[in-house]
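Section 3.1: Structural characterization of target chains.
Under the original work plan, the team committed to producing a structural model for every single-chain target entering the pipeline before any wet-lab resources were allocated. The record below documents one such target. The sequence was received from the expression subgroup and is listed exactly as submitted; it comprises 277 residues.
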Amino acid sequence: MILKTLQRFKSPTGLSYVTLGQGPSLVLIHGVGLRLEAWVNQLETLSEKYTIYAVDMPGHGESDLMEGCLDIAGYTDAIADWIKSEVKVPVVIAGHSMGSMIALNFAIRFPELCSGVIALNSVYRRSSAAKKAVLERVKQIKSGIAVQNITGPVVRWFDHPVQGDDAIYADLCRQWLNQAPLDGYQQAYEIFCLNDGPEESHLHAVNLPVLLITGRDDPNSLPSMSQSMAEICPQGQSYIVENAKHMMPLTHSNEINPIMIDFASRCFNQSEDMSYE
C-alpha cells in the first residue's frame, strides 16, 4: 500500500505540519523513523471535534534537522516554539512512542501551553535487558541504516505473520522507515534509547490530566510502565489495549480514537472551567 503524502505547511521554526478540522487544538507527534502520516487513522475522526495539528518530528518527514540536539528537551523546545508561533493557544498534546516522551516533557516544562497529555506506547524505567538491547540497536543505527534497521522495528511492532490490515500497516511502516532521513533517524533514535522516561518528581508536579495508553502485548512499552506513570501523576490514568502491540494508533484506532476524543474533551472543559476561577 502506498499512502498519499499529505500537503504540509512549513513553519518559520523549521517544522512541517498539517492542520485540519475546527475547535480546540489537539497536537499529534509521531515516533522515531516515522512521519505525520502515521496518524492516518486518527486525522479524519479527531478533526470532527478538534483542530488537529499533526507535525513531522524534527529531522523527520519535511521538518528540518536540529543540529547538535542532545536530549528530549531539545525536541520539546522545537515543538513549544512551533506552538507559540503557529497554534498560539493552549493545546492537548498527544504523542506516540518517542512522541509521547516529548508530549510528557512538554506538559512538565510548558504547563501554560498545555491543557492535557495523551502518551501512547511510552517507556518508563526499562529493565537492564531492555536497556542493553536498545543500546545495541543505537550502535547499529549510528553505523548506518541497514536492512535490519528497517525490518527489526516492524517485527517488534507487529504480530508475525502479519495478517489482514496489519499487513498493510506493516508495509507502510517499512516505507516510512526506508524514507526516513538518515541523520534525523540516527539522532532521534539515540536520544530515544538513552531516555528512560521522566523523573518521578517531575511527574508528581504535573498538575494536568494525563492519559497513558499502551498495548497489552507491546514488548518495549509495557503496560506496567504506563500504569506506574499514571499512579505518580496527580491526575494520571492509564488504559491498556488488549491484543495490541506498538503500532496501536494504526492497528487499534477504532478502540483508542473514542478514548482520545473523550479525554481531550474533558481536558478542554476543565481548562475552560479553570479560566473562570
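The beta strands are 9-10, 16-21, 25-29, 51-55, 91-96, 114-120, 210-215, 236-241.
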